[in-house]
Amino acid sequence: MRLFAAVLPPAHPLGQLAAEVGRLKQLPDAERLRWTGHDGWHFTLAFYGEVPADVLDELHERLGRAARRHAPYELRIAGGGRFGDRVVWAGADGDRPAMRHLADAVEAAGRRAGLRMGEHRPYTPHLTLARNRSGRLDLVPYTAALADFESGVWRVEEIALMRSHPPAPGVPGSQPHYEPVARWPLGG
Q1: Contact 106, 123 (CB under 8 A)
Q2: Which of 6, 32, 106, 176 supports an S-S bond with 46, CB 3.0-4.6 Å?
Q3: Dihedral sign for Cα atoms in the order 75, 81, 83, 87
Q4: Is the dihedral of CA 95, 63, 51, 161 positive or negative?
């Protein structure tokens, strides 16, 4: 299974973000972007890739341990940014140090379970909103439009292990599909 650990925002902040994305889609050239679906909005903490079945129990145990060692914290979806001219994303505000420590812990859980995690990079909490699908496109207007966006605050109380299903091959506009396979309460 292709897996990752994530924080899943609740419905109210996601609804506020959906309204903001509706405004972004009115900007010039918005149709040139591939917009992610509402059900794909999450804060990835660590990406594990293909996880063999014989590692899954160990990963579950280590993620549970990591969750118990981290207290719940407050977060909101706020602002935004871009990765070059490829991706537009919404950011996070609140207890970002707690989120970074949680991301480090769930990445370490994957390593300790025997997964090859690749290069460790500084954590940038983000929700992917759109991907550029048509070559050069200036994404600055999208990030500028997101600059003052803030959702309501919520309390992050759990992490989820998510399964990623790839887009349907040969189906234009098909999006990946994500489903939670396990959840652990923070501080539990």
Answers
A1: no
A2: 106
A3: positive
A4: negative
Q: Are 130 and 35 in contact (CB under 8 A)?
A: yes
Sheet containing strand 33-35, strands side by side: 33-35, 127-132, 87-94, 73-83, 154-156
Distance separating alpha carbons of residues 159 and 98, to the nearest angstrom: 13
CB 9, CB 154: distance < 8 Å: yes
Report the alpha-carbon angle 111-178-183, nearest 5: 60
DSSP state of 39: G
What residues are paired with 183 via a beta bridge?
A: 160
The whole-number pLDDT of residue 135 equals 76
Q: pLDDT of 169-180, one tens digit each?
A: 776 666 778 999
pTM > 0.85: yes or no: yes
Residue indicated by tokens 């048509």: 134
CA 96, CA 88: separation in Å to the nearest integer?
20
Q: Which of 83, 77, 92, 76 is nearest to 140 (CA)?
A: 83
With a CB cutoff of 8 Å and minimum separation 6, the contacts of 144 are: none
**Confidence at residue 174, expressed as pLDDT on a 0 to 100 scale:** 66
Local structure of 61: helix, strand or coil: helix
> What is the chain's mean pLDDT, rounded?
92
pLDDT digits (tens, 9 = 90+) for 66-86: 999 999 999 999 999 999 889
Contact by Cβ (8 Å): 70, 105: yes
